[in-house]
Amino acid sequence: MLPPISPAILRALCAVLIFIASASRGFGEPPTKDAKDETKLPVLTVPVRVHLVQSKATPAMHTTMTEADVRRVFGKVNMVWLRAGIRFDIESIVRTEAAVLSPELEAKEEFTRVNAMIPKASLGTAMLNVCYVKEVKPNGFFHAGLIVVKDTASLRAVEGGIDEPLPRVTSHEIGHALSLPHRQDRTNLMASGTTGFSLNDTEVKAAREIAAKFQKPASAGAAQADSTK
Questions:
Q1: Taking the CB of residue 54, how many other CB atoms lie within 10 A of it?
Q2: Who's near 181: CB < 8 A, 6+ residues apart?
Q3: CA–CA distance, 28 with 3 (Å, rounded to integer)
């Protein structure tokens, strides 16, 4: 028969187990009332070109993010979108020099100005383009096919929310690119300005419909190989 374990040892063991469980999550678990576990869905892969925008003339456009920052951020972005069965693969990370605006464009509203400063020749086709800058008025936006996120983003914390603003803002703007509108449930990914990242079934379905358009068709060789099995 095993000797009895003292209450002090039991408390210590419980503390260790709680610490291990918390560390393994990386950030808070999403609320369960708004979304079910969608990790069993077939994975849809969406390619992404990431632009680290550079500009000596316009400091607000000059991000100081590194490639390591981008890979960390997208690691968490993929955790957010795991429930929808959507994965974002980085096609490339490029340092994109911002264009100088004409006087006519200088007078335009911010979304148009920022979009005009991203050279169209640098954009990838058949993929999402995510541009990191230093400062824009919102944390980020999706406009005219371009995702823009500021590297100084800040959010209001909510229960179960993500532990870092940039992955959440990036995931939120990707949501817009995948057709999702704002939904002001503060724990939802599409709420404005919070750390929440839950998605409901309707949002998962709508996002997957757009993500499916990025899937490459099976090659003729692969199709023939499958037919011989």
A1: 15
A2: 190
A3: 37
Residue 162 to residues 48, 150, 187, 202, 226, Cα–Cα distance (Å): 21, 17, 10, 22, 41
Q: How far apart are CA 215 and CA 29, in angstroms?
A: 29
Is 4 domain-assigned? no
Supply angle C-alpha 218, 219, 223, rounded to 5.
75
pLDDT tens by residue, 72-89: 999 999 999 999 999 999
**Amino acid at residue number 144:** A
pLDDT, tens only, 176-189? 999 999 999 999 99
Domain with 70, as residue range(s), is: 43-215
**Within a domain: 56:** yes
Closest CA relative to residue 159, chosen from 124, 195, 109: 195
User: What CA–CA distance (Å, rounded) separates 9 from 196?
Assistant: 36
Name the band, by pLDDT with cuts 50, 70 and 90, for residue 33.
Answer: very low
> Helix, strand or coil for residue 143?
strand
If one counts the domains in the chain, the total is 1
| Maximal CA-CA distance, the chain | 86
CATH number of the domain enclosing 168: 3.40.390.10
Which residue, among 77, 76, 84, 39, has the nearest Cα to 209 in the 3D structure? Answer: 84
